[in-house]
Amino acid sequence: MRILGIETSCDETGIAIYDDGEGDLPKGIVAHRLYSQIAVHADYGGVVPELASRDHVRKTIPLIKEVLKEANLTPADLDGVAYTAGPGLVGALLVGCSIGRSLAYGWGLPAVPVHHMEGHLLAPMLEENVPEFPFVALLVSGGHTMLVRVDGIGRYELLGESVDDAAGEAFDKTAKLLGLDYPGGPALSKMAEQGTKGRFKLPRPMTDRPGLNFSFSGLKTAAGTVIRKEIALQKAQGNEGMDEQTHADVAYAFQEAVVDTLAIKCRRALQQCQLKRLVIAGGVSANTSLREKLAEITKKLGGEVFYPRPEFCTDNGAMIAYAGLQRLKAGTDADLSFKATPRWPLDTLSAV
């Protein structure tokens, strides 16, 4: 079976075709395209929902045509159409939902609405080294930070989540305080590579109490306090502001605090669930420091960490196609209506 996947939950338009290897094509991603709207939103310092929706309208159909051409397939060669139905920006979701459902109807194919975070959670399944169930998953991105026990597709137990800012959101906001351009998270991580360990010390929020929830708004505030103090100190000395090394040192301290916090909670979750396999996914899972730290803690526990390649850490159509195919095999076929669900708890999904 092969399926078309459409991702339009935020500011990236992702299209892909995935084949399960039971037909005339080898198993895996047949073709994929990803268009990022970074240039569209850069002047605003963040995603503008209306502009995101309009750009999805312009890009989705052309990208679908490109993917079909690259794969040398026609709609008649497909077995279904999957599209992100939530969570995300409601306008952006509606674009993907309406296009996906309409194409499925026009082509006479099943329509499969997909949960965006289930797509991220299953993204490591696109790799050669596939984790076996059960495992603990850390889903960490600009909009979500959560720990989930995964016993199978659709068999999810929420262990903990952020009570305020997601980790990726805190990265972006702190980057903005440092004067970095949008998107700030990757820029902050790159700047941190030049930072000095130990110059600044920032808190590891909610690690001194039991439980697996996260909180990153206070960490962002603490980083802002350090930045303001350093700027005031430099101005008192007759300088215009912080030098490059101080910027890098603050970035290092912030990233170290986020990574340590995530690692402490992951270790706690693995021990609580008595599991040794850890999956990390979502945009922040591409962070090199985070990967190294989680590899270190899982090794100490006698386990292993799994993650998708960097291009599939951010939003993409391949993860939606893969998740959609699992749902299609389980009999999912939406009726002619379609619904965008901007808020959609992961643990409400049905088991496959």
UniProtKB/TrEMBL annotation:
Binds 1 Fe(2+) ion per subunit. InterPro entries: ATPase_NBD (IPR043129), Gcp-like_dom (IPR000905), KAE1/TsaD (IPR017861), Peptidase_M22_CS (IPR017860), TsaD (IPR022450). Its cofactor is Fe(2+). The keyword Acyltransferase applies. Its EC number is 2.3.1.234. PROSITE patterns: GLYCOPROTEASE. It catalyses: L-threonylcarbamoyladenylate + adenosine(37) in tRNA = N(6)-L-threonylcarbamoyladenosine(37) in tRNA + AMP + H(+). Fe cation binds at residues 116, 120, 315. One of its GO terms (cellular component) is cytoplasm. The keyword Thylakoid does not apply. One of its GO terms (biological process) is tRNA threonylcarbamoyladenosine modification. Residues 29-322 form the Gcp-like domain. Keywords: Acyltransferase, Cytoplasm, Iron, Metal-binding, Transferase, tRNA processing. GO terms for molecular function: iron ion binding; tRNA N(6)-L-threonylcarbamoyladenine synthase activity. It is an enzyme of class 2 (transferase). Required for the formation of a threonylcarbamoyl group on adenosine at position 37 (t(6)A37) in tRNAs that read codons beginning with adenine. Is involved in the transfer of the threonylcarbamoyl moiety of threonylcarbamoyl-AMP (TC-AMP) to the N6 group of A37, together with TsaE and TsaB. TsaD likely plays a direct catalytic role in this reaction. PANTHER family: TRNA N6-ADENOSINE THREONYLCARBAMOYLTRANSFERASE (PTHR11735), TRNA N6-ADENOSINE THREONYLCARBAMOYLTRANSFERASE, MITOCHONDRIAL (PTHR11735:SF6). Belongs to the KAE1 / TsaD family. This is tRNA N6-adenosine threonylcarbamoyltransferase. It comes from Colwellia hornerae.
